[in-house]
Amino acid sequence: MTSGEGDTQSRVRPTRAACSARVLGVSVVAAVLLGVGLGYVTGAKSSAAPALAFAPHPDALHLKGVRYSRSARSTVAKPTEGLHLVFDATFGGTHLNRSIWDTCYPWEPHQTGCTNFGNPQEVEWYLPTRISVSGGALHLTATHTPTEGVTAAGAPKVYSYRSGMVTTYPSLDFTYGYLQVVARVPAGPDLWPALWLHPQSDQSTPEVDILESGGDPRGMLIAYHPVSGTGFMHTFATANLTVGWHSFAIDWTPQSLTWYVDGRPEATIRTGVPNVPMYLIADLAVNNFAKQCLGTVVPSSCTGSMAIRSIKLWQK
């Protein structure tokens, strides 16, 4: 963290807290990565997400109301200097530690799983059985398996896919600090892996998207959805995120949010910075933007696995 101002807060809950009703703030979807415009919903509000096309060296998308800068790629970042490691999650053994991780959105009762009702393009139903631990990593796996779930109104519905997601809601929410996730994303334009922060309260925003990937394994999207005003989105080229391990991080201070990929700063915002406790969500959604994932026989791009090796949080 580059600034010592402001109080850092984190809370480690020994047991799962009672879930309150929440409305999902929907992230920018993988269609945006493919250059397809899509309206997204945050609570009761609806806005049109601008179409972004991937390019080898895209310019920043500078949105009204957000002070943004493209960080120097050559900068050697040491954001953890002067900070202390307060949360260190790794994945040894073969079982998920349920005292740390939940497997559905906490605002859903999820006795039978859950999904992102705010995005009708998602065709997966999240189940704990699609989460596994092996080889020192957490795996979230999407398969083409028709699965019984429900609609937002509670009516029965069969989803074409099942997949996995986890959150730190039972164990950790925090305000300010440097959060780093080491992960490997799956290939396939129809898969939408994401790492994002959601408020511990029942509010749909703010939302910080640390990683959204889809379509091109050599690029990704980051975004910020504030409580009010226009948000921020930025796509940029990366190494092949499906090969080897890569770090995705956010440096959150009272004055700014800075996104890092593989230790290099990619973007910074300095207005509308969130100041409420947030927790981490990691999920692997399946989208139907290419209109090829709902048949009897589907391409391999509709299935895959996201692997996470570690999640660490440093604070003052």
Overview of this structure, please?
The chain starts with 8 loop residues before the first strand and ends with a strand. The chain is 1% helix and 41% strand. Strands 4, 5, 7, 8, 14, 19, 20, 21 and 23 form a nine-stranded antiparallel sheet that branches. Strands 12-22-15-16-17-18 form a six-stranded antiparallel sheet, with no helix packed on it. It has a two-stranded antiparallel ribbon with strand order 1-13. The chain is mainly β. The model is unreliable at 1-6, 12-69 and 71-76 (pLDDT under 50). It is built from one helix and 23 strands. It has one helix spanning 30-33; strands at 9-12, 38-42, 45-49, 68-69, 84-90, 124-126, 131-134, 137-142, 147-150, 156-159, 161-163, 165-167, 172-175, 177-184, 191-199, 207-212, 219-225, 232-237, 246-252, 257-261, 264-269, 278-286, 304-315.
Shape: globular
Listing every helix as H and every strand as E from the N terminus to the C terminus, the arrangement reads: EHEEEEEEEEEEEEEEEEEEEEEE
What name does the CATH topology carry? Jelly Rolls
CATH class: Mainly Beta
**Which residues form runs of ≥5 with pLDDT under 50?**
1-6, 12-69, 71-76
Q: Counting H and I runs of at least 4 residues, what is the number of helices? A: 1
What is the structure about, briefly put?
The protein has 316 residues and is mainly β. The protein contains 1 helix and 23 strands. It has one domain: Jelly Rolls (Sandwich), CATH 2.60.120.200.
Please specify the SSE layout and strand pairing.
Layout: E1 9-12, H1 30-33, E2 38-42, E3 45-49, E4 68-69, E5 84-90, E6 124-126, E7 131-134, E8 137-142, E9 147-150, E10 156-159, E11 161-163, E12 165-167, E13 172-175, E14 177-184, E15 191-199, E16 207-212, E17 219-225, E18 232-237, E19 246-252, E20 257-261, E21 264-269, E22 278-286, E23 304-315
